[in-house]
Write a structure and sequence with these properties.
- The protein is mainly alpha-helical.
- The chain has a domain at about 20-45.
- Helices cover about 65% and strands about 0% of the residues.
- The chain has three helices and no strands.
- It has helices at about 1-15, 20-40, 55-65.
- The termini are far apart.
Length: about 70
């Protein structure tokens, strides 16, 4: 037990101690993952039709010269 106590003190000195129970962090992380999964469903990997239009070459020339 003394060996673990020494290792724990070294670890806490290096990384700090955390008083929040791991169960609460687990639930908090789960909520973040659920929100990310919902956002991925909303964002499409493919562009909608009409979103991939060719460039307006006249405008491109005008911006390039300025």
């Amino acid at each position: 037990m003394e060996k673990l106590r020494k290792e724990a003190k070294l670890t806490q000195a290096k990384y700090g101690s955390n008083k929040i129970p791991a169960v609460l962090l687990k639930d908090q992380n789960l909520m973040v993952v659920i929100r990310m999964a919902n956002q991925r469903r909303i964002i499409s990997k493919r562009a909608n039709k009409g979103d991939c239009k060719p460039k307006n070459k006249k405008d491109q020339r005008m911006f390039k010269s300025s």
